[in-house]
Amino acid sequence: xxxxxxxxxxxxxxxxxxxxxxxxxxxxxxxxxxxxxxxxxxxxxxxxxxxxxxxxxxxxxxxxxxxxxxxxxxxxxxxxxxxxxxxxxxxxxxxxxxxxxxxxxxxxxxxxxxxxxxxxxxxxxxxxxxxxxxxxxxxxxxxxxxxxxxxxxxxxxxxxxxxxxxxxxxxxxxxxxxxxxxxx
Length: 184
Description:
Elements: H1 9-17, H2 23-43, H3 46-62, H4 73-92, H5 108-117, H6 120-129, H7 132-143, H8 148-155, H9 159-183
Helix pairs in contact: 1-2, 2-3, 2-4, 2-7, 3-4, 4-8, 6-9
């Protein structure tokens, strides 16, 4: 295995800043597929996601000098991609928001019974009904394992806002999945 693949993000960044532009290719290799998965709920088409990520990588390369390590490189990169995807989404389409019903979470016994009936099909159906930004937030948190602090940087929202959104989205998914199961 090529020893360059063992370089940390920080080491790659330092090499790029020192003039070794090929080191940026290692970063592209590490994050390209992850970024495509992240933006897919927002742009819908894989080709559009790939184009957007390519533009994000170019922008990141051009602005790498402004990255000073206040957060992880991946968080900085995700923020660029998230902002670009949201901007594209707003420019290209309007979506219909599903009204969020306020309510109290059911007790644990109800939750366990409900979860045992939920299927991957119900989850996919429920996710398809969510706003693309909400799907992306869930994907970053659960799929990519981003912390609330990282989501704050990526989305430019407060920690309390992120926590509230995640709480409401979990409840909304439970309700949507229940309605899917009832329809079956």
